[in-house]
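Researcher: Re-running this chain for the archive, since the previous output was lost when a drive failed. Same request as before.
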Amino acid sequence: MNTTDFLTIASSIVPDRPAIIFEGKKFSFGQLNERSNRLANALTELGVKKGDIVAILQVNCNHYLEAYYAVAKLGAIFAPLNFRAKADELTYMLNNCEARILFVGERYLEMVGTMRPNLPKVEHYISIDKKVDGMLFYDDLLAKASPEDVFTEVDDNDVTMLMYTAGTTGRPKGVPLTHNSFVTYMLSNVTPVDLEIEETNLLTVPLYHVAGAQAVLAATYGGRTLAMMRQFEVKEWMKTVEQTRANRAMLVPTMLKRVIDDPEFSKHDLSCLKVITYGAASMPFEVIKKAIEVFPKVMFINAFGQTETASTITALGPEDHVITGTEEQKQKKLKRLQCSIGRPMDDVQIKIADEHGKEVPLGEVGEIIAKGPRVMSGYWKDPEKTAKALTSDGWLHTGDKGYMDEEGYIYLAGRGDDMIIRGGENISPEEVENVLYAHPCVEEAAVIAVPSVEWGQEPKAVVVLKKGKKATPEELIEFCRQKLSSFKRPRYVCFIDELPRTSTGKVLKRVLREQHGKTDNV
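Model: Regenerated structure tokens:
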């Protein structure tokens, strides 16, 4: 089975059911399949064949899904590009993958125009939103092309998507993901399309991110309607939930925080929401605690994964977000809610390993490594980075530190390069950050290591205060001292207006270390 089968099956069983709702327009599964066929036939006329790379630079829209399925039907490889990337980064990615076709959204036309002389491998540019001199026009291609089904022999292990990592250090890395990478997850974790079951998923995560890709494919496989937003905006998100009566949503922690903190939150009827999945960055305890309170009927799922694993490899399920039972059970659940990323999914193996790859005892911190059919086989055209990331027997080094308890729950203890080691003692940045988030004046916080002659490293907190609130470094340090072991409290605190983040909400610790890695409070 490959991902094109998802659309073929859904369009056969529920052809008239809306597949996409986007900015007031609806496209049924039948229409999505037909438009994808037309585009696939148009791409064939342009010379696209199996194994070719077709890239796209655009925000979320219906064309994105049509383009993916058209490319997949041809056995070609779809490369969704980070629309927040700069011209030189995009040029590198397009040349690295040797894309033959580039779909371009309206807001990126000018930038792509400046890039064209440096893109020798791109043969055709397709403007998605309007006619442009020197480019083909999306609507014209569809209008002239045949709606007939396209059949290509596609193997489950053929690459279907080439996703570039955010590139927080060095150049972005290309991660080739096979049809089987996604199919394996769907077959194990998603209910297939059913005539009697109708659901609507609200998608705000960008489709160049693996969580977005997983959400799209899961919706198609499950015959769910996908309500799409170009980009997240809190008030528009709440209005979209109301208008589409969305049942499911996926949010990164910063998005969820903005929703529940919005002054107009209580004015919107969000009662249709049944499931909220969160992930892609560390979730502050105070945020998820409040979310559970204001969404009492919602089932929350904490999903943890990477591009290299085709997204989710562990999950903290709905039952873990319900704090009931004996006092001992409640305390255990609260701890999991604060620090755990849940237990491994059924189709992956996870272990906590030392620097030699040997599994460490329960409760001991090591690197989280993963193995399974969804794990990539290696980085695109980069054997050196592949050798560092993958063992000879297929174990992926995630770069995340953590430990496992006796019930198989995994707890994060920071990225390998984020871990603070003070006098031989490991300090988890997440643990200190969760304490800081509990302070009434703190809006956001990130903890980094700064050099110390005496201790090797000391923790430093970089803090964003809530509007109108004031606090001193001494006050926050004392607050942490009362709630943490003495060696874990920050020795330094500085205040900034906003934490630097990736497009999916991950705090850029590297940037913080560069800007605030001094032993002072400024």
